[in-house]
């Protein structure tokens, strides 16, 4: 009995040991399962991390592409603005060229008009000169072709005139009447240039000219236009001490041979004279 109990106890102990071994095996199996689960979880976490990295790279790429597109759009817009400005500049240049062409055409038209006007003026001048010459020739022997007539232009006075030297011996009033009969005047010598002309056509001899103070003493008046002699005119054609109205009887003016300038003289003195017919003004 005792041996059976001992055997039974040993069997029981063996069973207990077997149970413990079984429990250990179960625990080991559970541990392995837990380890496997943890490994699976760690693998899942690694996969999630990779996915996050991929998503971040995609977002960066998208942002870079958007920025590149925006830069390209800005460059395109800038190019369009530059092209528009260039087109505007070209338009302005074309307008300026058109304006310059119009101005050139206007200038050419003005030049043509001026040339036409000059031609007309020259034709009118020639016609007037011819009329004056015909009138002179029709006024008798004093202005016939054989007489010494001069058709001239004296620029300082800005007009044309026909003058004639008369060598006959006449008083001032007789000379004036002869000129007036031919629709002329005793020559007006207002400038040094005209004085040279009188000297040339008179041969340097004494000649009556159209200036006197018969109406009012000391007030010299030109026959041709009734104007008073100015100080500037006096200095141009008289010596510094003339006119002096010697003895209060020198009321008429002559071209004097000895001084080759004008001189006041008694109107009763007789010598040659010079007549002048001014042409009508073209202005």
Automatic annotation (TrEMBL):
Protein name per its UniProtKB record: C-type lectin domain-containing protein
InterPro entries in the cross-refs: C-type_lectin-like, C-type_lectin-like/link_sf, C-type_lectin_CS, CTDL_fold
Organism lineage: Eukaryota, Metazoa, Spiralia, Lophotrochozoa, Mollusca
Transmembrane segments: 60-82, 94-114
SMART domains, sorted: CLECT (SM00034)
Keyword Transit peptide: no
Superkingdom per UniProt: Eukaryota
Organism from which the protein derives: Elysia marginata
Pfam families: Lectin_C (PF00059)
Keywords tagged on the record: Disulfide bond, Membrane, Transmembrane, Transmembrane helix
């Amino acid at each position: 009995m005792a041996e059976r109990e001992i055997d039974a106890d040993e069997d029981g102990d063996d069973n207990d040991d077997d149970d413990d071994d079984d429990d250990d095996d179960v625990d080991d199996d559970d541990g392995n399962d837990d380890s496997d689960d943890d490994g699976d979880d760690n693998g899942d976490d690694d996969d999630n991390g990779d996915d996050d990295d991929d998503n971040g790279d995609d977002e960066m790429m998208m942002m870079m592409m958007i920025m590149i597109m925006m830069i390209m759009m800005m460059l395109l817009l800038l190019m369009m603005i530059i092209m528009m400005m260039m087109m505007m500049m070209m338009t302005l240049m074309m307008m300026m060229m058109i304006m310059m062409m119009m101005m050139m055409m206007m200038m050419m038209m003005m030049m043509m008009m001026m040339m036409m006007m000059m031609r007309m003026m020259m034709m009118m001048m020639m016609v007037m000169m011819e009329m004056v010459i015909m009138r002179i020739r029709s006024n008798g022997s004093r202005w016939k072709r054989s007489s010494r007539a001069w058709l001239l232009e004296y620029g300082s006075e800005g007009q044309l005139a026909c003058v004639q030297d008369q060598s006959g011996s006449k008083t001032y009033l007789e000379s004036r009447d002869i000129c007036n009969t031919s629709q002329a005047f005793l020559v007006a010598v207002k400038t040094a240039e005209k004085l040279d002309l009188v000297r040339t056509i008179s041969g340097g001899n004494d000649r009556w000219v159209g200036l006197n103070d018969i109406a009012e003493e000391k007030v010299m008046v030109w026959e041709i236009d009734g104007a008073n002699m100015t100080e500037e005119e006096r200095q141009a054609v008289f010596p510094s001490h003339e006119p002096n109205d010697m003895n209060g009887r020198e009321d008429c003016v002559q071209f004097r041979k000895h001084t080759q300038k004008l001189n006041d003289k008694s109107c009763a003195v007789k010598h040659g004279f010079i007549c002048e017919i001014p042409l009508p003004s073209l202005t």
